[in-house]
């Protein structure tokens, strides 16, 4: 089967060129089932088989939105550099960047820490928002899905703790409204501003303390002294 990598890649390149997303999904699905050589899928997806690099480089360079989405869903590594040292995202248009952004949000919602770290390292912006109408950042998503480890991962990589979404809420406001003391503690440990007020909606003008009124466990966390943690790294990509 390993000897057939070049044939498989050729077929996938043809599928990319001819807009056959169904073929890409089918081939990758079959490769995932091939237990005799578990390395066959990463060899196909992450080898530098095309003039631009990996299949993901190729689809990204040619602006193939659905093909990029299919390759990412199939497990393509966006952190592989081509011979020029470029990542797939370095070749992307704004439209294609949206696909990578969606992949980060999906991984956040699925609590896939490894994939989130991989995508951030590959250049996906930690400052992205899900839509102009909602303005939720990955940190808002992590808070709303109740995953403290994901919140810690994003905070440690320099996520903006005090950014507002379209509902006028910071991640801390969201965590308090959910009643999640663990995530509230995590956000405060990294320096979330406890004094910021909700800017719109039914809770306009209220701080995190106001929102926590009547919930003693939350109030205890909000009042507790703490030693602030510093982000391990600042992700500064701002696409």
From TrEMBL:
Gene Ontology biological-process entries: protein K6-linked ubiquitination
Coiled-coil residues: none
Keywords for this protein: ANK repeat, Repeat
Gene3D superfamilies in UniProt: Ankyrin repeat-containing domain
Cellular component aspect of the GO annotation: BRCA1-A complex; BRCA1-BARD1 complex
Molecular function (Gene Ontology), one example: ubiquitin-protein transferase activity
ANK repeat copies, ranges: 51-83, 134-166, 167-199
Keyword Repeat: yes
Protein's UniProt name: Uncharacterized protein
Source organism phylogeny: Eukaryota, Metazoa, Spiralia, Lophotrochozoa, Mollusca
